[in-house]
Design a protein that fits this description.
The protein folds into three domains: 1-52, no CATH class; 62-90; 96-188, ANL, C-terminal domain (GMP Synthetase, Chain A, domain 3), CATH 3.30.300. Helices cover 47% and strands 18% of the residues. It is built from six helices and five strands.
């Protein structure tokens, strides 16, 4: 859902900026006169000597009593929407995983403890320099986001296979989960080339 909202908002913002920039460029380069075509009557920017927003447009509503409260309210709503959008981008860390204990009661496993165990086991894999694990999703259906920094000699396919078949499988089985969907990001540790004298 959030990915769709992001794409729609960025698409609309891009189209709006493209239209605004194209309109200003059209008038600034005086293309209607050069290419001999007319612009609609409502078009605000007709030539290189025009301004985008004239004095009459800037001061038209200043004396009205509703103008400033409306401007402040619109800006406050826009700020609230932008803050919501910014906070929605953060993927919240899962605090705990609910596990069925078998007797009808649910047991809560600390999310950070499970992350630490998976990180430690991932660091022990051959060729892994650093590991970072974050649990996301719902407490009844967690997902893992894993970032591995590989050493230069590591085989990425083999490391990924062992991570999936051993490390994440152990975490899934020990927590009693039916599944543990995972996204893995592999990067290589940066090293400087040696100079030969």
């Amino acid at each position: 859902m959030l990915r769709t909202v992001n794409r729609v908002l960025l698409g609309l913002l891009g189209l709006g900026l493209f239209a605004l920039g194209g309109g200003v460029l059209l008038g600034g380069l005086d293309l209607p006169r050069r290419w001999d075509f007319g612009l609609p009557g409502w078009w605000p920017f007709r030539g290189p000597d025009d301004v985008v927003l004239g004095t009459e447009g800037r001061t038209r509503w200043r004396e009205e009593g509703w103008w400033w409260p409306t401007v402040i309210a619109v800006l406050a709503v826009l700020l609230a929407l932008l803050l919501w959008w910014l906070l929605a981008q953060r993927r919240h860390r899962l605090r705990g995983v609910l596990i069925d204990s078998g007797d009808g009661a649910a047991v809560r496993l600390d999310g950070r403890a499970l992350e630490d165990v998976v990180e430690a086991e991932a660091r022990d894999l051959d060729g892994v320099a650093r590991a970072q694990v974050r649990l996301t999703g719902r407490s009844t259906a967690p997902a893992a986001r894993v970032r591995l920094v590989l050493q230069p000699h590591a085989d990425p396919a083999r490391t990924l296979g062992r991570l999936s078949g051993e490390t994440l499988s152990h975490a899934r089985d020990s927590a009693g989960l039916d599944s543990l969907p995972s996204k893995v990001r592999l990067t290589e540790v940066r090293h400087h080339a040696r100079r030969a004298d």
